[in-house]
Design a protein that fits this description.
alpha+beta, 207 residues, 5 helices
């Protein structure tokens, strides 16, 4: 029995060796021919082009029409206005305001009248301030003077300054001590408004 098993194994081994030998022979014999045949077959490359884009279809423009409502104006019945009513019942009375009384002559004369010239009884004598002489200050002062019915300066204001306070004060002091002839209108004295210039100049040798 042992001899039979040994003989079977030998047969199987011999069969395996024979199969490997035949495979090796076929590989060595036919491999170069297969490579040569594959090398002789031409290779063909085919390029597939991309499909052209489908043109976009434009949608037709649609105009929107808003319906206009139809409004019918109702017919109104005629209205009859009676014409036999007395006119006084339909009249409107507007109260008439009394006109303001005209200004009296005394009120008109209370306002100074602007005049261009004035007559002096005693002219202004401005004194040049010592400090202004030392500092070489000079300039023109224009004063706005109200002359009352007696010919005195009741109000003195600076219309145009000389640029120096000492000169402005000296001009005001000189006009305050001056005397004027009252302004007369329609035979009666009246308040007057006049512009008086006072100039301070070093080359004139003011007092």
């Amino acid at each position: 029995m042992f001899a039979e098993d040994h003989s079977q194994r030998l047969c199987v081994g011999a069969t395996i060796v024979a199969v490997h030998a035949v495979g090796l022979y076929l590989a060595v014999t036919f491999a170069p021919r297969i490579q040569q045949a594959v090398a002789q077959v031409p290779l063909t490359a085919t390029f597939v082009s991309q499909p052209e884009p489908t043109p976009r279809r434009e949608l037709p423009q649609v105009s929107v029409v808003t319906p206009q409502p139809i409004v019918r104006i109702p017919e109104l019945p005629p209205i009859e206005i009676p014409t036999d009513a007395p006119a006084a019942s339909r009249a409107i009375t507007v109260p008439v305001q009394a006109a303001a009384p005209p200004a009296t002559q005394a009120e008109d004369r209370s306002t100074p009248k602007l005049v261009s010239t004035v007559e002096y009884v005693r002219e202004p004598a401005p004194r040049y301030p010592t400090q202004s002489r030392r500092l070489r200050e000079q300039g023109l002062v224009v004063l706005r003077v109200v002359i009352d019915e007696r010919g005195a300066a009741s109000s003195i204001e600076i219309e145009t300054s000389s640029g120096h306070a000492r000169l402005d004060d000296a001009a005001r002091e000189a006009v305050l001590h001056a005397a004027f002839r009252p302004y007369v209108e329609d035979g009666a004295p009246r308040r007057a408004l006049v512009l008086i210039p006072i100039e301070f100049a070093l080359n004139r040798g003011s007092a």
